[in-house]
Amino acid sequence: MKRIILNICGSISVALGVLGIVLPLLPTTPFLLLAAACYVRSSDKLYHWLTTNKHFGPYIKNYREGKGIPLKAKVTAVVVLWVSLAFTIFLIIPLISIQWLLFFIGACVTWYILKQKTLYLSEASRNEQQTE
């Protein structure tokens, strides 16, 4: 059952990552990293497919090799995080203690995303050319 759930979550993450390639509001890299994390625990075949895919593989490879996360993905992830948190904190959750907890979690996630090395577009283009 766990493998099925992880495969479903991984596949949803891949779909959102694909949408993130063309839609400016969705970050690609975090969704593909989540998909890789799901697949590595549930399906060697899907994990191999994702990491060797010519379109998705470089996102994961750049992150794993310490080259960083594209600036667009970082900005989008932080913006989407805080928009959804603000909506939840101010309109959904009435308990102040839970609101503060969500704020603290959002601050920690933001800090983690921003401390990751940034992969600038020119570096990403060079990396893609080198792999071809």
Q: Could you characterize what this model shows?
A:
The protein is mainly alpha-helical and about 130 residues long. It is built from seven helices and two strands; from the N terminus they run H-H-H-H-E-H-H-E-H. It has helices spanning about 1-20, 30-40, 45-50, 55-65, 70-90, 95-115, 120-130, and strands at about 70, 120. The longest helix is centred in the middle third of the chain and has 22 residues, at about 70-90.
| Helical run tally | 7
- N→C terminal distance: 39 Å
- SSE ordering: HHHHEHHEH
Within the largest sheet, what's the order of strands?
A: 1-2
Radius of gyration: 16 Å
Count of beta strands:
2
Task: Give the structural class.
Answer: mainly alpha
Q: Percent range for helical residues?
A: over 70%
Mean pLDDT: 85
* Beta-strand content: under 5%
Give a nutshell description of this structure:
The chain has helices at 2-22, 28-42, 44-52, 57-64, 71-92, 96-115, 121-131; strands at residues 69-70, 118-119.
SSE layout:
Blueprint: H1 2-22, H2 28-42, H3 44-52, H4 57-64, E1 69-70, H5 71-92, H6 96-115, E2 118-119, H7 121-131
Parallel strand pairs: 1-2
Helix pairs in contact: 1-2, 2-3, 5-6
